[in-house]
Amino acid sequence: MHLCAIVLFAWTGALVFGPLSLGLRSDALSAAWLACGAAALALGAFAFLPPRFWAALARHTGATWAGALGLGLLAAGFDAYGAMLWRPSAALTFRLVALLLQPFLTGVIADPARHIIGTEAFNIEIGATCSGVEGVALMLGFSALWLWVFRRSCRFPRALLLAPAGMILIWTLNGVRIAALILIGNAGARDLAAGGFHSQAGWIAFNAVAFAFAMSARKIRWLAAPASSHAAAPVEPADPNAAYLAPLLAILVAAMVARASTTRLELVYPIQLLAGAAAFWLFRREYRRMDWSMSLSAPLFGAAAGAVWLACDRLIPGPRLLAPAEGTASLLCGALAAVTLIPAAEELAFRGFLPRRLVSAAFLSVPPKAVGLIPLLVSTLAFSFYHAVHWLAAALAGSLYAAAFLRRGRTSDAVAAHAFANLLLVICAALTGRSLFATLW
């Protein structure tokens, strides 16, 4: 049925956009074309998951779809009309950056007409992507989604003040980021300023503001709704989320900070290794309670995942080669992290936590073998998106890690399979001279 709908969609599309009309009204043809397209989308969804699943999903999510539709329309409207906003916002950003630079630099070059600011040694043009509009829109979307999802724990209308406060703060930090970029470039680190710092500093600022937004909404009594005296006691005495998520978050934050402060990607490895090791040490008591035994089948799943990853890697243009001057110590740190910390951190999050958390908030009470196909599919897709460029290899390898996880219901098997797959990738990278960073991330 999906194939038939696709054929009808192509045929009616040829009539709508082609020279033939068969004497039919163009609006009737357009309606038929759109109907065939909608039918093709629906039937394609039903081909992967039965209609009863989609009906249950719509029934259990309720008004969330309306909120998602509103945010989608808002994003589409901003994409269409956002260009109209960047010129006045860029002018405001220009004035803020000039004000921030005055105490630190003399002889600042400022051309408001062309939005160029800096010094003789290093100057930049503040364009649409640097005007702060994107950050403000992103913060608006985050604020709206947060306030809707956690509306029962917020005190309205006071909590609504968090949205403009977050938008103003993210715009201000964008000006601070640009001023810092100019200071770094003027000091001689032009590659660092225009490279890692330029992009990573923006994401660091957004994450910091989003975290402050979430903490303010939950911890400030003036903004948070009073707790109900009849609220049910928590199922678990302590929050177990941190032990499963902290290592991965620590590795991500360390990589983000490292890329913002250096142009050498290989220096990311030692920083990630230290951050991940610190997170594991912090929650060592929780990890001691887990079963870390490994089955003999785990390396087989890992070998298959490594082979799949290498096969998919050949479909992507080859990454840069390692320069002879690269430090051996940093590469050893990268190899060590890839075989130990990274598999454990990723599997705790994507196999040990996420599938069971989709089943129940008290995820520790969910037996791994009781996790259905849909939660595992969602976690595998999240694992794929997390690896960005290598999404196809990550999706296939993640499916094998999930199979290892389900076989005995132990996260340790998924960790072992992931570690063995990364070991094969490390060996291949060492033999071929390819970058570990490009191969594994």
Protein traits:
441 residues, mainly alpha, 17 helices, 3 strands
Question: In words, what does this structure look like?
Answer:
With 441 residues, the chain is mainly α. The protein has helices spanning 2-17, 26-48, 51-61, 64-81, 83-101, 133-149, 162-186, 190-219, 241-261, 268-282, 284-288, 298-313, 328-359, 373-386, 391-408, 411-432, 436-440; strands spanning 109-111, 116-118, 123-125. It starts with a helix and ends with a helix. Helix 7 (162-186) runs antiparallel to helix 8 (190-219). It has a three-stranded antiparallel beta sheet. The longest helix is centred in the C-terminal third of the chain and has 32 residues, at 328-359. The chain folds into three domains: 2-50; 66-219, no CATH class; 286-440, no CATH class. Strand 2 (116-118) and strand 3 (123-125) form a beta hairpin.
How many domains in all?
3
Distance between the termini: 39 Å
| Model regions low in confidence, pLDDT < 50 over at least 5 residues | 229-237, 318-326
Contiguous helical run count:
17
Task: Tell the overall outline.
Answer: globular
